[in-house]
Amino acid sequence: MIDGIKVVAFDADDTLWENEAYFQEFEANFCKMVGCYVTSEQASAELLRTEMRNLHLYGYGAKGMMLCMIETVCKVAKEESGLMAVQEILKLGHELLQIPVEILPGVETVLSALTKKYQLVLATKGDLLDQERKIRKSGIQHYFDRIEVMSDKTLTDYQKMIDGIGCKPQEFLMIGNSIKSDIEPVLAIGGHAVHIPHHITWQYETQIDDSVSHDFFRLEKIEEVLNYL
Amino acid sequence: MIDGIKVVAFDADDTLWENEAYFQEFEANFCKMVGCYVTSEQASAELLRTEMRNLHLYGYGAKGMMLCMIETVCKVAKEESGLMAVQEILKLGHELLQIPVEILPGVETVLSALTKKYQLVLATKGDLLDQERKIRKSGIQHYFDRIEVMSDKTLTDYQKMIDGIGCKPQEFLMIGNSIKSDIEPVLAIGGHAVHIPHHITWQYETQIDDSVSHDFFRLEKIEEVLNYL
Fold first, then answer.
1. What GO molecular-function term can you cite, just one (chains A, B) (predicted)?
2. I want to staple B43 with a disulfide (CB 3.0 to 4.6 A). Which of A55, A72, B31, B211 is the partner?
3. Shortest CB distance from A83 goes to which of B74, B97, B127?
4. What is the pLDDT of residue A130?
5. Which of A46, A61, A52 is nearest to A12 (CA)?
6. From the CA of A123, how many Å to the nearest CA of chain B?
């Protein structure tokens, strides 16, 4: 039992619904598209470099990924067939932006058990329009008292969010799949955190700080949260 | 004097700072780039069609515009030189995402005069990361009690915002440059609105509903707001 909690916040992508799998499928398709110029490993590495270089400009989300793929194509492709790959990226990107939202197992059980007992917050990072579309399609927005779409999930972003909610850090519990975005910054401001690893994690999110405290719960299934709340 | 106001909200792009001019310059460059295939008018019309078709996917902002330009290039350009135009679009798009924020004349006078007397809200539409970057660079964020980045500015979006603030529509005054986004939806929910036309308006924002009420102030200069508050 974690005492004193008044607010419970959930990460959305890969905690409430499937997400990274679609991005990785998009990336696999991209690697195939440029397969005549570079190997899959080279394409993937070049794409990640491009994404990191542009993160401060594009932020997270599908549009930034599409633009980074296009930039990578310009770099690796030979002039004459590059434009076909660009068209294909736009086509697949549009599909990515319209994939149905697939709620993860156990999520509704947890939300319906907690919704009357705690103030529930959906705290997600990414493109505003992307995230709003997923939230609307998810059909689970009625469980939440607040929905927070953040452009990033740093310590400062969480501090601002908690100030906006009007609760103390020790009254705040974050549930998420990313150590870097959902766990480490929340612990750093004095909050509680539960880590529920997802089967697929974006490479960027695995670049974690070794000095991160290990003072958090790691659960295999989201339903196990109910044993602690 | 408008009585009973507790909250004053400002649109940001083209009300507080320069914006549309940079987008139109980007578009002019784009038209030049594809000038060997189509006329400027055709390029511009094709781009607007592409933007409207993708608005529900991309939302507003520079990344969506870049993707729409790339899609338009794929449509109009001949294969062999299309990729060079794509590279140029990415380059110009990056420049667009990093343009300094130029506060419009009179804005600081108005904000410093109102900041103690009213709850001030910055209510802007667009890409979350784009908007946050501009807000940070603007150096005027300390005047505002709330900053609201919305993916759109419909009647429902304003209703949600006002509910979040906890004020009545008749206590809410919106100041902005777009009839479609800043004036019409605010009047529709029973709020007050002041229109300050900007010298440049995006074509999309000029497609207004003819039935819109004309019960709002139109001022030439933002400082004139101080005569009414």
1. hydrolase activity
2. B31
3. B74
4. 80
5. A61
6. 14
Distance CA A16, CA A11 (A): 7
Show pLDDT as tens, one digit a residue, over chain B (229 residues): 667 777 788 888 888 888 888 888 889 989 988 888 899 999 999 999 999 988 888 888 889 999 999 999 888 887 666 677 787 888 888 887 788 888 888 999 999 999 988 999 999 988 888 888 889 989 999 999 988 998 889 999 999 999 988 899 999 999 998 899 999 999 999 998 999 888 776 666 666 555 555 577 888 899 999 998 8
Domain boundaries, chain A: 7-17+101-227, 20-96
Residue B47 three-state SS: helix
Two domains, one topology: A7-17+101-227 and A20-96 = no
* ipTM confidence: 0.75
Chain B from 106 to 145: CB within 8 A of any A CB: 127-129, 132
Strands, sheet with B119-125, edge to edge from the N-terminal-most edge strand: B146-150, B119-125, B7-10, B172-176, B192-195, B217-218
Under 8 Å between Cβ of B89 and B73:
yes
- The CATH number of A20-96 is 1.10.150.240
Cβ–Cβ < 8 Å for B209, B188: no
CA distance A217 to chain B (A): 31
Q: What is the dihedral of CA A59, B152, B164, B159, to 10 degrees?
A: -170
Mind telling me how many Å the CA of A202 is from chain B's nearest CA?
Answer: 20
CATH numeric code, B7-17+101-227: 3.40.50.1000
Count of pairs with CB atoms under 8 A, one residue in A, one in B: 85
Contact (Cβ atoms closer than 8 angstroms) between residue B33 and residue A33 = no
pLDDT in tens, B49-66: 999 988 888 888 889 999
Q: Helix B62-76 crosses helix B79-96 at what angle (to 10 degrees)? A: 170
Dig out the tokens for B104 from the structure. Answer: 């419009």
